[in-house]
Amino acid sequence: MKAGAGRVKTLSVAIMMAALAGLMFYQFLQTPPQTKSKLEKCTDLLQGCKIVLNGQNLVVKFSEPPSALKPFMITMTASEMQSVYADFKMEGMEMGPTKYRLKQVQKNAWEAKVILPVCVAGRRDWMLILELDQRMVFIPFST
């Protein structure tokens, strides 16, 4: 009787492990593809930054020097984009929600009026994060 009980226990463990492995594989298949990202160096966002992303030329530009709580425009030229978002972050700081949707104003032109949040610590090192369809571009800048 003991030998039969041992087989049942072993079989139960094997079934549970197979079910767990199946569940993990299912979760793996359901995970969305990772967003590609790219860090860009830009000397002057007022003059415009040229970016090449997946063979496509983009230009991102600020209308005026960014300053906390003062609205300014972000413009971007790019073709073949479905959606464009801009966000402002600081490393190690939670600035609250600042995500803006750029609207397509012409065939290859996007723009949004944005406001840079206030940093109570007095820091001036920002990261512009552009979400271009499923791709992310990070552009550091200072105010």
What's the short version?
The chain is an alpha+beta fold. The protein has one helix spanning 2-30; strands spanning 36-39, 49-53, 56-62, 72-77, 84-89, 100-106, 109-114, 125-132, 135-142.
Write the layout of secondary structure elements.
Layout lengths: L1 H29 L5 E4 L9 E5 L2 E7 L9 E6 L6 E6 L10 E7 L2 E6 L10 E8 L2 E8 L1
Descriptive account of the structure:
About 3% of the residues have low confidence. The chain is of the alpha+beta class. It has 2 domains: 31 residues; 107 residues, Immunoglobulin-like (Sandwich), CATH 2.60.40.1930. It contains 1 helix and 9 strands; from the N terminus they run αβββββββββ. Helix content is 20%, strand content 40%. The N and C termini lie far apart (79 Å). A hairpin with a 2-residue loop joins strand 8 and strand 9. Keywords: Membrane, Transmembrane, Transmembrane helix.
CATH class of the largest domain: Mainly Beta
Number of strands: 9
- Helix-strand sequence: HEEEEEEEEE
Number of helices: 1
Rg result: 24 Å
CATH superfamily of the largest domain: Macroglobulin (MG2) domain
Spatially, the strands of the biggest sheet line up as: 1-9-8-5-6-7-4-3-2
Q: Given the C-alpha coordinates, what overall shape results?
A: elongated
CATH topology of the largest domain: Immunoglobulin-like
Separation of termini? 79 Å
Determine the structural class based on helices, strands and strand pairing. alpha+beta
Counting structural domains, the number is 2
User: Which CATH architecture of the largest domain would you pick?
Assistant: Sandwich
β-strand amount: 35-45%
Major beta sheet, specifics? Answer: 9 strands, mixed
Fraction of residues in H or I helices:
10-25%
- Which residues form runs of ≥5 with pLDDT under 50? 30-34
Mean pLDDT: 84
